[in-house]
Amino acid sequence: MKIIYLSVIVLFIVCASYLPAQETAEEIEKLLSKDIITYAAAARFILEASDTKVTSDVHEAFLYAVQQKWLPKNAAENDPARLDGISLLIMRSFNMKGGILYSIIKTPHYSYRELVSKNIIQGRADPAMYVSGEKLLFITGKILSQKESEQ
């Protein structure tokens, strides 16, 4: 549990350079309070964290992710976000490389498997499980700290 809170603090520090401090704190607070997030909210946060598309409109972020084919085909804006769908969005928006199967078949299933193998998704996890705001922050924080250490 301490690792999760430590990761949230690290994410807060890393994100502070991307957004004005007040907006970052408010957004992190909103995400932490949600037990299940929607694909639209996840798309807005991840696209901004990856510097792919900065917008305050969740609808616009969702449409952009759908147009880029970065979300599952059957995902609707207000649907609860599943871990495999979020994995695809993360892999594509952060332009992450994957193994042979992911390189050939860029599906949510293989995106999820790549993030598990890269130790970004940890612990008990199921590709069909819904993603909480805390889980999204933890995963995004791991990716951002990994990207920072690569530079």
Please name the defining characteristics of this protein.
151 residues, mainly alpha, 0% strand, globular
Question: How many domains would you count in the coordinates?
Answer: 1
Approximately how much helix is present in the residues? 55-70%
CA radius of gyration: 14 Å
Structural class from helices and strands? Answer: mainly alpha
The topology string of helices and strands comes to: HHHHHHHH
Terminus-to-terminus distance: 29 Å
Shape: globular
Q: Quote the beta fraction.
A: under 5%
The tally of helices reads 8
Model regions low in confidence, pLDDT < 50 over at least 5 residues:
none
Number of strands: 0
Task: Explain what the structure shows.
It is a single chain. This protein has one domain. 61% of the residues lie in helices and 0% in strands. With 151 residues, it is mainly alpha-helical. The mean pLDDT is 86. Helix 1 (2-16) packs across helix 8 (133-150), helix 2 (21-32) packs across helix 8 (133-150) and helix 5 (83-93) packs across helix 7. The chain has eight helices and no strands.
